[in-house]
Amino acid sequence: MKKALLLLILLISTVLSGCWSSKEIEDLSLNVGIAIDDGDQLAEEMRHIDQVSSSQEKGDLAVTFQYINTSATTPDSKGGGQKQFTNVSAIGNTNHQNIRVISLREENPIMFHHTKVIVVSGELLKKIGIREIMDFYLRDSEARLSCLVLVSKGPAKDTLQSKDPAVIPSFRLLGIVDNAYRSSRILNPMTLAKIQGESYSKSSYLLQNVYTEDGEVKFSGAGIMRGKTNKLIGYISEDDLTGITLITGDAKGGPIPAFEKQSGKPMVYEIETIKSKIIPHVKRGKISFDIKIDSEGILSENWKDSKEPSEKIASEAEELIKEEMEKTLARTLKKTQKHYKVDVVGFDNELRIKYPKTWNRVKDDWDATFAELPIKYSIKVKIINYGNTDARS
Amino acid sequence: MLMNNRNKITTVQATIFTSSYILASGILTLPRTVVAVVKTPDAWLSVLIGGCIAIVLGVIMVKLSQCYPGKTIYQYVNILIGNWAGKTYGILLVIYFVVLSAYEVRTLSDVTSYMILEGTPAWAISMPFIWIGYYLLQGWITSLARLFEIVFPISVAVFLLVILMSTKSFEMDNLRPFLGEGIQPVLKGLTKTVFAYIGFESMLFLVAYMEKPEKAVKSTIFGIGIPILFYVITMVAVIAALSIDGVVHRTWPTLDLIRSYEMKGLLFERFESFLLVIWSMQIFSTFCITYFVAFLGISQMFNIKTQKVLLGLLPFLFLISMTPRTIDEVFSLGDILGKSAIILFGFIPLPLLILAKWKGRVR
Amino acid sequence: MKSLDKEEQKSKKNGKETKQSPVFTGNFESDLKKVKDLLGENSDILFRKFRLNNTKLKAALFYLDGLSDKELIDKFLLSSLMKPFSETDKEQIKQDGLKDFLKNNVLSIGEIKESDEPEKAVIEILNGSAALIIESVPEVLVLGIKKPKTRDLQEPISEPLVRGPRIGFTENIKDNTAILRNQGQNEDLFFLKKSVGERAKKQTVIAYINGIANQDLVDEIVRRIDKIKIDFLPESGYIEQLIEDNFLSPFPQIQSTERPDRVMGALMEGRVAILLDGTPYVLIAPVTLSMLLQSPEDYYERWIPATLVRLLRFLAAFITLYGPSLYISFISFHPGLIPTKLAISIAGSREGVPFPTLLEAMLMEIAIEILREAGLRLPKPIGPAIGIVGGLIIGEAAVSAGIVSRIMVIVVALTAISSFAMPQYSLGTSLRILRFISMLAASIYGLYGVVLFTLLFLSHLVRLYSFGVPYISPWTPLRMKDLKDFIVRGPMFLMKSRPVLLQTKEPRRKG
């Protein structure tokens, strides 16, 4: 009896004093996207918000948080044309400070569980390494490690704008990444989880670049991150990105156009399967690479009059497409290897796996070594289907 | 009244008992601690070998316990090495188990308060946990074994599901090259991996309560084999997804593995909560076992009524679990526990076994 | 309680002392008086004085108005007693004595007992028998002419089936034992009779199959029933509560059922049934949790649909227990764990709801419990109407008034329906009770609270026994043999063994 009483008292006391961590969902701002800009550059523009009693004139980071305007999403209030999201910006020295500044200005605290994308301005990444910028989000347990990381050539906060009030810009960015199976110009998503590994390993890597203008966005090429410093050193264009995805084998689903030599009429090849291999060779201490690409696909568009038998069209097209791919590869490799002098494709990885000893010797200055290495490539293209026209008889 | 052997446990239960005991706080941090030492993607191999060593040690303990059927280590160690030495060893064991038990509670409250219950005080997290353990233990060893029998299969299923779903973020390149730097780093990792199998000592007590003690060896091998499988799968999945460079810098790498993917189109997109749920259930298992074994030791060595001991231990558990102040202190407490376990259960049982066999022969 | 009992016993003794000699003497008037004194002024007890024809002996017949078979008394008893005896009869009377003659030659009734104690005779009268007092005979003849008030055999209301026998137990224990006998000719089906109750005795029957049921189990049940000290047993629920293992547990530890096929199935597994006169609810012991989740129909249907239905029931049980508490923990503790789109729509629908989720959930759950209770107590034609009115209108109005969110209404409704999907009403009730505890736990600790609740709940379950059988078997202790009749209902040809933990005398089924 006494025991039961004791338990009861204990239970009641916990119930009464309980609910320490409870916070109702509607009392939180559901953050879905974050844009991080260079504070110095945006200071002028954003001054008006922070000028009241802001302790510093400018800060290193200007962070924009996008959260969902839940009252605009209820079924009852649909069609009001209300904006479904709200963007709030703050300038400060660190991420965490900025978040707390928001708490001074907004009704509800921000919650990062649903953050889908973090867009970092390229200008900022040229100044500060990505490890430093992302440290807060990696350390904190709220932000998900599956959150995407993108680079923006212009101001990052503009990528979180949209003209159409029904569109939530963060979700739009997320949706575009999911289109990777439709295009060879979208990189494998770089998530926070991968950033952690990349930022500690010394190898260079790419971050998908977002181009933005007047509330419209486009995925356009990628930012090149140098592994040693974790800073951005430049961009590669959309076309060059195709070269990268061809080598990594991620170009599945992307159309490759080729132009007929005499007429200049286009033929489009859609990649169905692509197998690519980077084969490292070490001979007498000399490193070289072979790239082997083996692709099968569909002739998805053909402007040329097809009076000829389809076998002939196919072999012609295969040849043209192969040349086109080779051109792309050459251009891409030139850009990364010779111009930027970084290995963003993952040659280092293959070397590390196949020749760990050699790798240990060169790993400290890999990007410089890589710039001088010979790379050969061979491409095989096979058209296996013609769609609904021009079938072989 | 049907007497369904209220004080005996089946072979399956003994197996699950051992597995539940081993799988605990370690699974969330193991990839980090091992990779930090091994530094190559072969860390999982180190875990595998560590497990085999644990099996050997476990079998030694079973053989030792089988020399004294129906008796736990607390009872037969006195006969074996004399009253004083035996008592000392017994008391050391009790201290070890009490501290280990408190350590489990502490890990639980730390992870829970950091991951899912920010703002809830630690005492509020650990108190009900300890009380429930107390309630369960009143049902003696059969209740424990039964609870584990329910919880463990669920844990296994959820765990496998959650890990399997992470295959999307696998990158095999992170696991290669295999033995690129030879076996040396793998062996270095053993110093850490054997710790992960603390719990193989359960057989020192379990054999006395088994329906069929002759099957104890089998249940030890399976009981340790299941955690080996768990650990290896975890290591492989975590390294493949996060790469060694990533793993070393994450505090709870296994949790991060689950946090690194989202499944669209299901009722849930995120699954780390599932992992935390089964993990806290496994912590509960380990906590209950250590609590039980500590109380068993006191009541058997000093012939005190069980209820009193059980209740008397509660405040100690709570206070010890509150002692470490920072997370570093918690982790170093874990290290100390690991080292003392190696001394208590790694080095001592073999001489005891030889002694027991020798005594048996003399008689 | 105990002191009261003692006082009663004392007063009883005192009452006895005031009466004269406790046995019948053969003196008609004094015998008559004894019986009358004991019976008191009861309007429903009839007695008829008459003379045994051409013997001049006085006789009297006592019987209960309404309970005794009047037609039998009028047409056969009285007529044969008043009919003149022939010469040969008189010869016979001389030889056998009057009493035996009457028994052997006159009273054409199957059940005749003799009693020389007025007290016993009175109990028999109150049971519906007739008592015949005859001058010069120092015993009373008790004639079993009870015509019990009973209703027709009907389909059990609380456990309807789509496929299965339409017969249910009634309030009459004799009918009930007969129904069990009728389930199949089996000479091993044993009925142990006991009468329980201190002030008003009632018949209970312990049924088991000799050769299957473990003798220790039967002995234990008999022991526990013998230990029952109570004034009166109105219903078998009293027995259930008086002999169960753990009175603090929210779980029913003895199964009660109206279905003879369920009882027979249990008996064949080696369990024991307890029948009580006056109630259609028969108790089955020992019981396990999985039994409460099963319906006899599982066995009548083919095994694949039966298995799927069982899975559905487990799911329903899960929702009943965890539905609202998971909702609470996701909404007010871990908004990060639900899909983003869902989180947005929930947050949108909760916009403007003034209460925290726990209070919201509690409000709705309690409202639904009240509705359920009201629907039960109301006269049958109104009940369902009230349910619909209450459920639909209150739910809809609460949402449009902005007191609760739409999604909460869905959660609560789903939970309520799930709890009614339990094949045993008592289990549904206990799960509903536990649901409130799990909601509280979730509102303090979120998901961790749900885990704590689960651990507590399981700890309780593994410690619970029903007559020595672990309540949660066959889940644990794991017996592979029993698993095929747990979540899965295995195909018939596999169901060859009885549950291991019942330790039956004959572990394999015949055939």
TrEMBL record, chain A:
Residues 220-387 form the Spore germination GerAC-like C-terminal domain. It is found in: Membrane. One of its GO terms (cellular component) is membrane. Its main location: membrane. Pfam families: Spore_GerAC, Spore_GerAC_N. InterPro entries: GerAC_N, Spore_GerAC-like, Spore_GerAC-like_C, Spore_GerAC_C_sf. One of its GO terms (biological process) is spore germination. The keyword Kinase does not apply. It is a lipid-anchor. Keywords: Germination, Lipoprotein, Membrane, Palmitate, Signal. Residues 22-205 form the Spore germination protein N-terminal domain. Belongs to the GerABKC lipoprotein family. This is Ger(X)C family spore germination protein. The lineage of its organism: Bacteria, Bacillati, Bacillota, Bacilli, Bacillales.
TrEMBL record, chain B:
One of its GO terms (cellular component) is membrane. The keyword Transport applies. The keyword NAD does not apply. It comes from the Bacteria. InterPro entries: Spore_GerAB. It is a multi-pass membrane protein. It is found in: Membrane. The chain crosses the membrane at residues 12-31, 43-64, 76-100, 120-137, 144-166, 186-209, 221-244, 273-297, 309-327, 339-358. Keywords: Germination, Membrane, Transmembrane, Transmembrane helix, Transport. One of its GO terms (biological process) is spore germination. Belongs to the amino acid-polyamine-organocation (APC) superfamily. Spore germination protein (SGP) (TC 2.A.3.9) family. This is Spore gernimation protein.
UniProtKB/TrEMBL annotation, chain C:
The keyword Iron does not apply. The chain crosses the membrane at residues 272-294, 314-333, 403-421, 433-458. Residues 1-19 have a biased composition (Basic and acidic residues). Keywords: Membrane, Transmembrane, Transmembrane helix. One of its GO terms (cellular component) is plasma membrane. Its main location: membrane. It comes from the Bacteria. It is found in: Cell membrane; Membrane. Residues 1-24 are annotated as: Disordered. GO terms for biological process: spore germination. It is a multi-pass membrane protein. Pfam families: GerA. InterPro entries: Spore_Ger (IPR004995), UPF0353/GerABKA_families (IPR050768). Belongs to the GerABKA family. This is Spore germination protein. It comes from Mesobacillus zeae. The lineage of its organism: Bacteria, Bacillati, Bacillota, Bacilli, Bacillales.
